[in-house]
């Protein structure tokens, strides 16, 4: 990387920020930029690694890695170092660490000083954030350039976003290429006005010229005249230019602090002072797409709500852009556009519609959006608030002043004005009082004289008239003709009219002036008395003075004749004062030839020119004298005024001298203050350096420490954490600011939040020992995070110090202490004796007396092994040798007490030595272990029995599954070596569960004993019988020479159990189903043989039970499919592959829809459409029926809630409940929670039960049903008569519905049996006052049959097949009656 050194004079004047993240775009851009481009380039979105990619192409500009403090040079490009963000400060690059959030582009745009905005160009990236676009808009409004890739708006030409086109535009901008000339600019603006209706003549010219130049660069046109021709022929280019010139930048609550101040200071005043008889009137000028108008409406609405009043608002939002107004009227905004709105306001004032949000109706109806030209149309009046943000900055100063005067005029007394942060009042500051200067919030100055504005502020560009509600413009040339005609009529038939002001300056002339006016020689002048011919001057001056004094119309006639008076015969002079609310000190002078009344007198007058001349001179002299008198009087008054003014000037001079002295003093104070500030700044710099060092030390300490420390604020949001915290919880840098309760942690601490609340309340630190999921122990401490002045608790510091080793040591100490206490307790009750080296007893404690029966006196001196008749495990001499060698000996002895009872003791002998180490005595401690040994003997016997139970069935004494598996594996291994054949027969007792559940387990056990006995009687010498499950048996047949032997044995076994079994007065008829697999044909391993035989057995059950089947490859495929279905069914529940269909139920009396049954359907991504019977059976066998049933119940409730919300009238939906799901302990809670969460009427949910439920504890079933009944749901008995029907059970169950199974539907007129059963079921339902439904109706004859029987409802494919949810919803929306 090159090192760049430069002085301040070479810092680039213009800056280009390229926000692209694609290296290809950057390369294409720089290839089109010349080497002498005077701008510097920042690439904040590219990393240091992109430098190598850019180096592959020779670029005209050097591209380097930026260094902090290095000057930003022209014709250079800068990339950020790896992992850093770029910024600019005082013309020098700055490299910052990445903040907690935000994009590098946002960072560099924020760092730009305000005075550099006009010298900055921004090329935005494709997915620019709202903040980036807002910052770019600020730069553009300040005079900078903004390019988009593609443009922010729709409809832009692709050439707009070409890197080459952007490079050309930036080159022209950076090198100062002149913009369009004034004449071409005006013509272009006229075209824009005619196309879009936007009059931009009052806008500042530089921004307009820059944007036009940008479009010229994109169109590759250098001359303004050529671009003007393009606009005249290309409507699309004209539309693009109009869109560029009318860019609107707005957002909800833009400048959050400004709106917060407006809400706190202005809104309460407006809402509180307005009377109940009128609304608050507000005008939002330049509203663009409406975000700012809606923000104002929300603030005012909330202001009224805070004072408990109904909002009364009239808000006028105007703009010249009709498309933006159409968008604003919709009030529909994306989620990104609402980023500046709080969650509370979002929920209160917005309604979600898909991926967007719509403004609430109350807010929308308070705003009127209308097209309005701020500088050409009249304003609104009687307003309480005017909002005109970031509009005035585009207009010239004169129009700004006129608009501000207009705003002052239309505001009510005490009204408020809200401008943009870049706008100021200028000369109009006297009209408003300042509320907030930074945020440009002002109050109308009621003391200032109201200036009546001139409307419109800017004269319209074309002549137009208003007729019948439309603007009608004359055809080309018509207006010019009319004006010429009008002027001709004035000149021929009207008097000569002159408008002059109080200074005798001519402002306007109309009519024929030749007889009365003449142009003087020399410099042109508008002085009235220089232009009027001399004979009229005296009378005109006199008439003007009289009119000025008396403010009335004055008329005079000047007569003349001959050459001395070069005028008509007589001239009438009329002077009229012009004055109204807007105009004053103007005079209308009329000059008109007048014929004399007496022709004779006129002739006489003309004959005597000298007499007339004398008369005229006398009149002029009198007028002159009068003028002189007034002039002298006026001079005297003027002298007095000048003297007073001189005195005022002298006083002002003295005040100015005093003010000058004060300024000198203030300057000295400022110099002193500047010196203090310089010193303070130096101190702050030192503090900043110290703070940075401290911060670095703290960061390094937090990173280096192995202690988990967590810093929280008062709301328990994360402020900082150490890396060691990741052992206990998953934390990433973006979690800073998140609530600690949302973080997943790996330890159990139920008191954490309670302790945290106590510490925040001011209690002392809290500590607890906690255990994580890995088994490690931590000492958790919660300490207060106090402010610097230690006056309040600002948060918490939580430490997690691992104390696993200490905890283990503590537990070891506790165990050792317990052991010592146990030993002490044992010694307390031990039998202790001591004897000398000749085995004579020298010590005998009290417990020895109680245990053995001899007193201390009787025992002392006796030989111990003779007294106690001791039996040793080793010869006594050997024991003594070990004792002398080791100093101790342990073992078991058998003693005989005084009563002759043998006692087994655990003895411990310790050799006692004197101070010289000579053995002196033996201390013997004995503990009675007689009972313990007896218990251990019993335990050993029990272990033998447990070993037996591990391999044999305790009921039948047959090998169990484990033992049979071992035997089968051994037989397979021997058969592989010897090349022999094996046979495996799986047998299952049919319907055993029914017998076991209905007659009890004792009967079931006796039945299994009888079956096992009969099977054992038919075993061959090489056969092994085992019980491998509840009602399952297996037979291993080894050394098979006859392939037919397994089938013969299976037939014999099936026949053996056909003989009825009589148990407890019950005669039971039992059958077996069997499956046979062969080795090596079906499998070459034990597990494969077991699976094959099991699959064959299930096939035999499916074919009717009481028979056997051999395994075939098809069975293997079927078993694999069932396994695949089970595996994928688990994933289907997680991945949402299941869906519900609804089969309608018809009322047989009215033909209307009365209900529907919910049926599960599965369309697997891998298996395709899986038949319902197939996957339901797998779910029953595997236990997946429970989560499947929960999903069905929750989905049905959600569907019912959706139908209710959409305005449909749903019907009762029946859901099938399996017996296994019904037995779940949380089944009642599941139903209640599903109904509560969806707020569905319980009467719309029906639970279909099967008769298998009755095989359980009927009392428990009834209690559960009654508990469910209290929730409001109803019950039906499905497939009644196919299971184990019992009328007594039916009477006890709280049923409301009975369903006839499809098995009982008569297949024809001759099917009398099914017809009789169906008639009986329908009659039974009616007798019990239950609704009766028949399902499976497929023909009209079947439907007619059950209608005749009096059945209430029918269901089947004749009526409707099961419908997907969408089609069933259409069925509900348009419920057509069924055809009966």
Automatic annotation (TrEMBL):
It comes from the Bacteria. Residues 1122-1376 form the EAL domain. SMART domains: EAL, GGDEF, MeTrc, PAS. Residues 188-445 form the CheR-type methyltransferase domain. Residues 980-1113 form the GGDEF domain. The keyword Coiled coil applies. Residues 614-694, 803-830 form a coiled coil. Residues 889-941 form the PAC domain. The keyword Coiled coil applies. InterPro entries: Biofilm_reg_signaling, CheB_C, CheR_C, CheR_MeTrfase, CheR_N, EAL_dom, EAL_sf, GGDEF_dom. Residues 832-863 form the PAS domain. Keywords: Coiled coil. This is EAL domain-containing protein. The lineage of its organism: Bacteria, Pseudomonadati, Pseudomonadota, Gammaproteobacteria, Methylococcales.
């Amino acid at each position: 990387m090159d090192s760049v050194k430069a002085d301040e004079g070479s810092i680039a004047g213009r800056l280009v920020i390229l926000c692209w993240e694609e290296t290809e775009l950057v390369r294409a851009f720089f290839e089109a930029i010349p080497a002498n481009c005077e701008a510097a380039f920042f690439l904040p979105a590219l990393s240091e690694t992109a430098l190598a990619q850019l180096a592959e192409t020779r670029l005209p500009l050097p591209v380097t890695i930026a260094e902090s403090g290095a000057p930003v040079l022209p014709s250079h490009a800068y990339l950020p170092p790896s992992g850093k963000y770029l910024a600019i400060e005082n013309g020098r690059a700055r490299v910052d660490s990445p903040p907690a959030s935000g994009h590098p582009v946002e960072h560099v745009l924020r760092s730009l000083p305000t005075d550099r905005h006009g010298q900055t160009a921004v090329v935005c990236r494709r997915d620019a954030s709202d903040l980036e676009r807002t910052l770019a808009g600020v730069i553009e409004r300040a005079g900078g350039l903004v390019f988009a890739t593609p443009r922010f708006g729709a409809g832009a030409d692709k050439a707009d976003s070409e890197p080459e086109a952007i490079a050309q535009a930036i080159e022209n901008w950076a090198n100062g290429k002149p913009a369009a000339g004034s004449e071409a600019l005006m013509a272009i603006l006229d075209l824009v006005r005619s196309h879009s209706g936007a009059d931009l003549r009052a806008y500042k010219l530089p921004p307009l010229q820059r944007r036009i130049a940008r479009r010229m660069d994109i169109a590759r046109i250098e001359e303004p005249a050529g671009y003007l021709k393009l606009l005249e022929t290309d409507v699309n280019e004209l539309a693009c230019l109009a869109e560029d010139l009318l860019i609107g930048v707005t957002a909800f609550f833009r400048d959050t602090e400004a709106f917060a101040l407006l809400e706190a200071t202005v809104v309460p005043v407006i809402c509180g002072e307005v009377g109940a008889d009128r609304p608050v009137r507000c005008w939002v000028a330049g509203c663009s797409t409406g975000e700012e108008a809606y923000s104002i409406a929300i603030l005012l609405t909330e202001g009224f709500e805070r004072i408990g009043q109904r909002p009364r608002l009239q808000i006028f939002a105007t703009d010249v852009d009709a498309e933006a107004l159409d968008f604003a009227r919709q009030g529909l905004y994306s989620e990104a556009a609402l980023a500046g709105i709080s969650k509370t306001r979002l929920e209160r004032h917005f309604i979600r519609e898909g991926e967007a949000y719509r403004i609430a109706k109350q807010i929308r109806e308070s705003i009127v959006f209308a097209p309005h030209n701020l500088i050409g149309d009249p304003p609104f009046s009687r307003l309480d608030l005017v909002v005109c943000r970031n509009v005035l900055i585009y207009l010239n100063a004169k129009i700004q002043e006129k608009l501000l005067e207009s705003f002052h005029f239309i505001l009510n007394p005490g009204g408020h004005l809200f401008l943009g942060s870049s706008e100021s009042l200028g000369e109009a500051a006297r009209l408003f009082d300042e509320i907030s200067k930074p945020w440009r919030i002002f109050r109308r100055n009621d003391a200032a004289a109201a200036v009546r504005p001139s409307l419109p502020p800017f004269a319209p560009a074309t002549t137009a008239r208003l007729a019948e509600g439309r603007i009608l413009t004359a055809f080309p040339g018509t207006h010019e003709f009319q004006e010429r005609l009008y002027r001709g009529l004035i000149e021929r038939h009207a008097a000569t009219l002159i408008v002059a002001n109080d200074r005798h300056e001519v402002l306007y002339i109309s009519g024929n002036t030749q007889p009365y006016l003449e142009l003087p020689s020399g410099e042109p002048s508008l002085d009235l008395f220089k232009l009027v011919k001399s004979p009229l001057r005296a009378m005109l001056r006199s008439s003007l003075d009289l009119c000025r004094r008396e403010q009335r119309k004055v008329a005079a006639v000047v007569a003349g004749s001959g050459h001395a008076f070069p005028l008509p015969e007589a001239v009438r002079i009329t002077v009229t004062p012009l004055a109204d609310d807007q105009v004053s000190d103007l005079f209308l002078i009329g000059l008109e030839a007048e014929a004399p009344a007496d022709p004779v007198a006129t002739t006489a007058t003309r004959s005597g020119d000298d007499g007339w001349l004398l008369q005229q001179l006398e009149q002029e002299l009198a007028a002159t004298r009068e003028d002189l008198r007034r002039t002298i009087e006026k001079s005297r008054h003027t002298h007095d005024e000048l003297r007073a003014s001189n005195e005022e000037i002298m006083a002002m001079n003295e005040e100015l001298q005093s003010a000058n002295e004060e300024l000198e003093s203030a300057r000295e104070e400022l110099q002193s203050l500047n010196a203090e500030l310089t010193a303070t700044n130096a101190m702050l710099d030192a503090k900043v350096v110290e703070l940075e060092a401290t911060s670095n030390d703290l960061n390094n300490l937090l990173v280096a420490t192995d202690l988990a420390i967590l810093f929280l604020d008062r709301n328990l949001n994360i402020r900082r954490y150490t890396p060691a915290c990741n052992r206990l919880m998953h934390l990433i840098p973006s979690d800073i600011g998140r609530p600690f309760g949302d973080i997943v942690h790996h330890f159990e601490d139920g008191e954490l939040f309670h302790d945290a609340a106590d510490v925040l309340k001011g209690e002392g630190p809290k500590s607890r020992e906690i255990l994580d999921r890995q088994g490690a122990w931590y000492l958790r401490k919660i300490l207060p995070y106090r402010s610097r002045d230690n006056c309040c608790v600002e948060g918490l510091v939580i430490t997690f110090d691992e104390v696993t080793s200490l905890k283990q040591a503590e537990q070891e100490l506790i165990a050792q202490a317990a052991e010592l206490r146990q030993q002490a307790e044992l010694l307390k009750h031990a039998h202790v004796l001591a004897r000398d080296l000749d085995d004579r007893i020298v010590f005998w404690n009290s417990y020895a007396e109680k245990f053995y029966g001899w007193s201390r006196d009787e025992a002392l001196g006796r030989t111990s092994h003779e007294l106690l008749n001791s039996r040793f495990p080793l010869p006594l001499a050997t024991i003594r040798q070990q004792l002398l060698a080791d100093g101790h000996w342990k073992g078991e002895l058998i003693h005989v007490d005084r009563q002759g009872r043998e006692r087994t003791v655990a003895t411990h002998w310790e050799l006692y030595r004197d101070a010289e180490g000579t053995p002196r005595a033996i201390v013997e401690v004995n503990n009675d272990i007689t009972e313990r040994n007896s218990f251990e003997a019993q335990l050993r016997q029990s272990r033998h029995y447990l070993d037996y139970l591990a391999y044999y069935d305790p009921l039948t004494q047959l090998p169990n599954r484990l033992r049979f598996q071992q035997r089968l594996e051994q037989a397979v291994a021997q058969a592989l070596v010897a090349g022999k054949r094996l046979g495996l027969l799986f047998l299952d007792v049919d319907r055993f569960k029914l017998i076991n559940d209905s007659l009890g387990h004792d009967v079931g056990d006796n039945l299994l004993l009888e079956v096992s006995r009969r099977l054992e009687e038919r075993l061959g010498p090489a056969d092994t019988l085992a019980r491998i499950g509840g009602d399952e048996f297996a037979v291993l047949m080894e050394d098979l020479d006859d392939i037919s032997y397994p089938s013969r044995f299976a037939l014999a076994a099936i026949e053996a159990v056909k003989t009825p079994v009589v148990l407890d007065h019950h005669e039971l008829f039992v059958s077996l189903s069997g499956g046979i697999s062969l080795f090596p044909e079906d499998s070459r391993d034990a597990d494969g043989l077991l699976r094959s035989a099991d699959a064959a057995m299930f096939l035999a059950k499916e074919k009717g039970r009481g028979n056997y089947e051999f395994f075939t490859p098809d069975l293997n495929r079927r078993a694999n499919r069932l396994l695949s279905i089970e595996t994928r069914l688990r994933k289907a529940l997680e991945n949402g592959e299941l869906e519900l269909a609804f089969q309608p139920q018809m009322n047989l009396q009215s033909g209307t829809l009365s209900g529907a049954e919910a049926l599960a359907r599965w369309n697997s991504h891998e298996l395709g459409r899986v038949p319902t019977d197939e996957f339901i059976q797998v779910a029953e066998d595997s236990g997946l029926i429970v989560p499947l049933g929960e999903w069905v119940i929750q989905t049905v409730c959600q569907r019912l809630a959706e139908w209710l919300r959409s305005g449909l009238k749903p019907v009762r939906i029946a859901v099938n409940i399996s017996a296994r799901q019904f037995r779940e302990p949380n089944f009642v809670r599941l139903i209640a929670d599903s109904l509560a969460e969806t707020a569905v009427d319980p009467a719309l949910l029906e639970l279909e039960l099967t008769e298998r439920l009755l095989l359980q504890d009927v009392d428990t079933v009834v209690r559960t049903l009654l508990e469910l009944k209290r929730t409001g749901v109803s019950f039906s008995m499905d497939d009644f008569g196919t299971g184990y029907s019992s009328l007594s059970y039916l009477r006890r169950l709280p049923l409301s519905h009975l369903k006839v199974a499809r098995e009982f539907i008569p297949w024809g007129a001759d099917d009398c049996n099914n017809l009789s059963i169906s008639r009986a079921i329908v009659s039974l339902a009616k007798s019990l006052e239950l609704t009766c439904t028949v399902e499976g109706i497929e023909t009209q004859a079947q439907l007619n049959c059950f209608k005749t029987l009096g059945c209430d409802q029918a269901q089947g494919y004749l009526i409707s097949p099961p419908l997907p949810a969408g089609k069933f919803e259409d069925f509900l929306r348009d419920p057509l009656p069924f055809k009966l």
